[in-house]
Each structure stands twice: as C-alpha cells, then as structure tokens.
Amino acid sequence: MAKDKSNFYLICLLVVFIAASGWYLHGHPQGLTAGSGPTGPAPCRVEGLHVAAPVPTSVSNPTQPQNQYPILTWKLLPEAVAYELELYADKPAATAKPFFTTKRIYIHGYIPELPAAYSGSSFWWRVRALDYYSQPLSDFSAPQQVFVQRQEAALLRPVPMTKFNSGNGTVLLYPVYLWLPIPGTNKYEVEILDAPPENPDGSAPSVHRLDAFTDTGFDAYDPKPRFSSKPLYWRVRGVTEDGKPVGVYSVAQQFVTDPAANYSVATLGDSICHGGGSFSYAPSEWEFSFQHYLHFPVLNLGRSGDTAAMTLDRFDADVLPFHPHYLLILTGSNSLRSVSHSAEAVIEQFKALEHKCDEHGIVPIFITLPPINPANIKKAFDEDTDKMWQIKFAKVNDYLRTRRHIDAAARFKNPNSTLPTAMALDGLHVDVPGKKLIAAAVNDEFKP
Q: What pLDDT score does 109 carry?
C-alpha cells in the first residue's frame, strides 16, 4: 500500500506511449488488459463513466501578465487519473491545432515553458480529464486566455499545492507534500525548516534547515514523522541528477502538528487510513481522506505502506506523544493480501495494539477492513494477492466485530466479495466514494 512511485511512473509512461501509438485490442490498450477478456469490462476502468469538464481556477488579465512560466490550475476531478492540456496561440476553433499538448499531468495544475520562438502577448489553454488508459473522461474545459510578458529575471520555482491545517483531516504526522513541477527536471529536493527561510527567493539551503530529502515527480511522502511544539515549514526546489539547483525554492509553507494541541481523536493505520487513491492522488488531496468527511477534529497518524505489524511497532513513537483519548485503528489490508501473513498473526497484532492502548489509558476502536480487488491490484501494481484473501479478511473482520469497532466493511456492497472498480480503481486504495462510506460509518457509529 506504500506508494510505489517507480511502478506508478512506469505505468503512466506505458499508458501514454500505448495511447499515443494507437495499439489497441478490442477497444482497450494492448498489454494493459491481460486476463480481462475481449468482451468483459477492463479492470481499472469504470465503464461508461463521463464526468463534467475541469473548472479552471487560475486567472489572468492584461494588466498583470504572467511570465514565460505561466501557472495554470483547475479544480481537482476525483475521477481523473491524469489530465490532458492543450495550448493555442489563439482561441481554439474546431480545426485549430495546439502548439503544445501533453497527457502526462497527474496533479490539477501545470507550469509550461513557452517556446523561445513564441512571441505572442497571450495564449489560450484548455484541459480535460483522462482515465487509466489515457482516454477522455470529460470534455475539454472552456478555453482560457493567459496574458504573458517575458521577464529576464523570472523565477523558475515549483508551486506548493498542499494546504495543511486548513480544515478537518488536514493534520498529518507523516506529511505528503504536493507541488506543480517546473520545466526541465523531474527530480526535487524537499527542505524542512524550523523557521521561515532567510533566503525566500534563493536556491541555497536555509540556515533553518532541519532535514531534506529528494523525490521525483510532483509529490513526496515524508519518511519521517514531523511534529513540534512550534510551526515547521517546507519548501521544494528542482535539482539535477547530481544535485545542482534548477531554479529556486518554492515559497515556504507552514504546518503545525503539536502534541500539546490535545487531540481527543486520532486515526492510526496504513494508507487507507493515511489517504490517497485513484493512482495519482496523495493523502494531502483531502478529498481522498476519510478524515476529511468526519464531523469532529482528528489527528491522522496513518502511514502509507504499513502492515499490521508495522503499525504496532511504531505505536510508542507515533501515538504516545499525542496521547489521544480515542484511537481509531484501520490497518491490516497489506498483511492479509500477502501469502506471508496469516489472519491469526494479524489478530494477535490487533490484540497487542489493544493491550498497548489499555496500558496508556487510550480507548482503541477498530475499523473493519474494506474488501479489495486482486485483478485491479495486479493491473495497477503487478502484485499478486493471496487466493485465500476473502477467508482471511472475513476471519479478521469477524474478530474485530467482537471488540470496540466501527463496521466500515459492512457499508460496502457485498463486503466479503470483490471491491467494485468504482470504489477503487487500483483495487486497494478506496477512492472518494469509498472514503465517504468509511466516514459515514464512523460518523454514525462513533460519538466522541
């Protein structure tokens, strides 16, 4: 359940290549539908789904033109796996051809670099949602005009897209940082600081640096828990393969995860608890967090990639500093889908979690595990699932129902059967409809 970014980007590149080259078999991209059959629905696709066009959110006017690195943004579409963007010199007519187009956008925004030969004072853009196979999921948005003026000293910097401490479910012990990538690099360095940087428009590390790590693409899962009695800050810069800066750092963003904040309720578990879904959306895309839909404040102590044993192992370090009164526990799916973990072993780990909570005056409340979809997991991650997974899930959920629990699994249609694609495109991380079902169960069955 950890975000395997190398697999993810490989899948994305394969999808784009196959779609561009036109290799199709029975209406689906060849090589990505093995085992689905020529007449059956392809996994990782909700058949017949068509959604409204993306809604642009960036604005432009001739009195405040953008530079040669214009920032284009639109509202997130939860059903989209990717987006297709087109740029035109003039307002696009039916037969117009864009001077730039890409289908490799996995966040709801983009920073193009206008070609050096482009001398216009404005351009037009439009965007549409794509599915797993790079096929249109929506119509294009209404064309938007952007006014531009080249600047010799224009700053090339990523644009942060994460807003922590901005509403329910937006406080994470393991933050995930999102940004709009910049042209010219796919590698980035995230810097964590204990004060605002003294060089806000610089490319050199700050004297307030606490830590830094590199990642690729448009997001980074922090490998360490981040909490402090005072605000922390994060920013990101592009780097070359050998670590040299590309442009300058983004504007630093503040976040606070304070043990003294007296959170009454915390959630603990794996990536279903941490958040994210639909292949490309991270836990800090709040729509993909069940905590976002709860009726009470909550601290998210989830960590993507956990097995039940890993959740247990980090209990002392990650839970005890906050000492919540209630701990909602949602973990074990990674364990049970593997042939290496038995239901009995997972139950013993849940017993140990319950014992630890009791020792420290914390009330444990287990959340039953939603089903999974092995065919879609194989399609998305090339990972096999234990053929006995349904028996194992049922055995563990039956045990959890004997403890203090919230029965989220019962909210899913045929909870002991395969998870519908409409609930989780990748077969594992439930998407927005599934996150809302989990939240509804919590809201209905638990009153802090």
A: 98
First vs last C-alpha separation in the chain: 29
Of 161, 155, 156, 186, nearest to 175 (Cα)? 161
DSSP letters along 55-124, please? -B----BTTB-B-SS--EEB---TT-SEEEEEEESSS--TT---SEEEEEE-SSEE-----TT---SEEE
pTM, whole model, 2 decimals? 0.89
Q: Say whether 160 sits in a helix, a strand or coil.
A: strand
Residues of the chain with pLDDT below 50 are 1-41
Note whether 219 and 243 are within 8 A (CB).
Answer: no
Mean residue pLDDT across the chain? 90
Q: Rg for the chain (alpha carbons), in Å?
A: 23
Got the DSSP string for 209-241? EEEEEEEETTEEE-SS----SS-EEEEEEEE-T
Spell out the domains of the chain, with CATH numbers in brackets: 49-153 (2.60.40.10), 159-255 (2.60.40), 262-445 (3.40.50.1110)
Beta-carbon contacts of residue 207 (< 8 Å; ≥ 6 apart): 198
Which tokens sit at 223? 């490998």
The Cα-based distances of 132 to 8, 44, 116, 135 in angstroms read: 11, 6, 33, 7
